[in-house]
Amino acid sequence: MGEKPGQGRKEAWQGESLRTRMKRVKVYRLEDNGKWDDQGTGHVTIDYIEGSKDLALAVVDEEDNDTLLLHNITPDDIYRKQEETIISWRDPEKALELALSFQEAESCSFIWENMCTIQLELQSKILGSHEVRPQRTVKSLEAPRDSLSRGKSLAFELPPLELSSLSVILKTILLCDVTQQTRLADLILKDRDFFPKIVDLFRTCKGLGDMDGLHKIFRLVKAIILLNSAAIFDKIFSDDFILDIIGVLEYDPEDRNVQNHSAFLKEHAVFKEAIPIRNASVVSKIHQTYRICYIKDVILPKGLDEATLASLNAIINANNAFVVCLLKDDTSFMQRLFATMRSSNISAESKRELVLFLREFCTVSSSLQPAQRMQLSRDLASRGVFDIISDVLRSQEKVLVSAGTDILHYLTQDPNLLRSYIANHEESSREGISLLGLLIEGIATDFGGEMLCQFLEILKVLLDGCTADTVTQCRDFIELFYEKCFDKLINIIESSRVEEYSAKLEILYNICELLCFCARHHPYKIKITFFGSNSMEKILTLTRRRERSLVVAAVRIMRTIIGACRNDELLISHVIEFNTLKPIIEVFVENGNRYNMLHSMVLELLDFIRKENLKSLVVYVVESFWDQLLMFEQLTSIQAFKLKYQEYVDIAEETQTTSVDHTRKADERGLDKEEEDYFSKDSNEEDSAAQTRHAHQQCLVKPANGSEIHHIPARPKSGGLVDNDSDKDYKPSPKRPVKADEALNIPMASPSSLDSKDADGNILKKPKLEDNQSPLSPASSIKNSDGNDDVGKASPGSPDQQQHALESLDSGHQTGDDCMKDAEDTTKTTDSEPSTAG
């Protein structure tokens, strides 16, 4: 019976030894182009190099037994295991990237474990005879598989802690990788005498003046801290060891002078209890937290990595939360604290210590969860903390005022608490200065940049953040602020003119920031506050200051107002009416071609006006200030602004022309129907008089000789009668007086119409725009609903109105004979004769 294809080869493969199967690999080398080049397939072994004691990794070609690879295993951390079947490394001597690709994952793990074991042996030889030793040593690849699998978990053995073994232990800690740090920390903690022995060695070396030993202990303790083990931190930061550990860290070999950190903590860092704390665990945590902060910030500010630094910060925050929670829940302690602060029998120094303690208490409370912080704020408010802060802010001592603002800023986590307090105590405040008034005084007082910013932030929080639940309290506070405080801020700016300099730069700048904030968040208040009492004019006096930052701040306020109320036509008209942009354009022109913040801010303002299509402002700026802006015409922003203005002009002219054409066509279509309806209806005495007056209006015709003749078209309208020469003694009936505001329904004259003449032969021309005005000018005449020019304030039948009526006539609709005939027919149909016009 014959063999199946491949059967003999399969049986031969199954007959191979396990050793041969586990060694089969492919060798790869990384080329310059980033691709791996196959160097061949062979069998890998780990053995001593002939004539040497070094162990090497060798790969022999499976076909011709040539050596494909020979690599000395080094103690350096250059080897990497990728996935389950690849081991790669970079040969530092040959500068090559090499890789072994194993046939099976088991063979890869087998070689990898042996390489790791050999590395540990090599490191042990480097460090000395007491170095970390693995439990087993690989001598050949014929070692049992179960023994090799146990080699995945290597146990460390540290030498006894003695002065002579400090270097070995230090090197062991420094050379372990991240995966070994946890096992090494467990090994250290397993020895209960480890840290007591370190303390004893430290005291011995310190007593003998052994600086070399002290330097070794410093390096060892620092290396242990960098292991970043929470269990080790609990040990070394305990009350039993922390002061000695700080003493060890005084002997930094890189610092020539010994630092007396422990002496400072014992003698100068005195713990003051403004109110005695009876809980010993709270006191212990307070001490521990301070000392950890001292190690982190003073002793080892540059010697800690990010991971260790994060762990120390976590310990500090946890301690703070522990202390705050215990103290806030201690009813007796809180009652004693606030009763003492409200007492009038305590000394100024004691009160000062209590205020500083309360600030520290609020500061460390930031480590609490948001809900806990909110509840703490409410608890403090219920105990009367706002009354205490009001008294503190009245103090003349800058330290106390600073502490008060810090406490108040913390309490604004629930701003509605402070809003309610201010609203309820505004009228009953002592000495006539409420807490809100104290905040305004604070922002206007030269306390320094940091405190001014603190006052500013508190006011911003109170003026913002309204929610559906707090809208009532928020609205009441905002009304109170604008009623009591807004004018005070404006007066501070007004009193700080160029000549006086009564307020410092920081004060004025912060006030501008607050006003800008108000304009952005309360646009509905701008009309009353910024334009109601010339406030904007006073603010813009800052444009005359020599400090450019204040000039920019004033421009920013104007920019914010326009941005917040860009859809408010009334406010935009205020800006135009009061010529508000004049000082801004002037200071922009004075700045010239200097490219600075002022230059950019004004250009941004103009760009905003253009992009938002604020037509009135575009026309106002160009027609009022173009002569001044002409020197900047080369700037892209100014060019775009001018093009936008021209676009508006073109659209207005086109619209006006189109409107006139439509009106003329409408008149031509509707004239016959109007006359037919007019002559066919029954008229009473009042209507007859009005119709007769209309019949005597003149219309314009051109005879063959080209001369102009004025006749009156028979066009009924509700306005007054136009006088003419043929009816000087003709008086209209007074039965239906015409109202002063009654519109004249007169069609707009055609652009082709010639100028009309009055009864005396004087040429009547249309009213023209004022000088330097375009049809878009804010001062242009207002159009009525029909698209015709408003007749102004003249009464019906006045000469002004008559002249305007003549201007509005369309002479192309009827001939002169038709007009006269209409007049005669109209006269016949009236029941009463109109009296001659005087």
UniProtKB/TrEMBL annotation:
This entry carries the following GO cellular component terms, namely: nucleoplasm; protein phosphatase 4 complex
Q: Where is the composition biased (Basic and acidic residues)?
A: 661-683, 725-742, 815-831
Alphabetical list of Pfam families matching this protein: EVH1_PP4R3, PP4R3
Segments forming domain Serine/threonine-protein phosphatase 4 regulatory subunit 3-like central: 176-647
Compositional bias per record (Polar residues), positions renumbered to this chain:
772-785
Q: Where is the PP4R3 EVH1-like domain?
A: 23-121
The family database entries (SUPFAM superfamilies) matched by this protein are listed as: ARM repeat, PH domain-like
Q: Which residues form a coiled coil?
A: none
Please name the InterPro entries in this protein's record. Answer: ARM-like, ARM-type_fold, EVH1_PP4R3, P4R3-like_central_dom, PH-like_dom_sf, PP4R3-like
Q: Which GO terms describe its molecular function?
A: protein phosphatase activator activity
Cite the residue spans of the region called Disordered. Answer: 659-838
Q: Which organism is it from?
A: Triticum turgidum subsp. durum (Durum wheat)
- Please report the name of this protein according to its UniProt entry: Serine/threonine-protein phosphatase 4 regulatory subunit 3-like central domain-containing protein
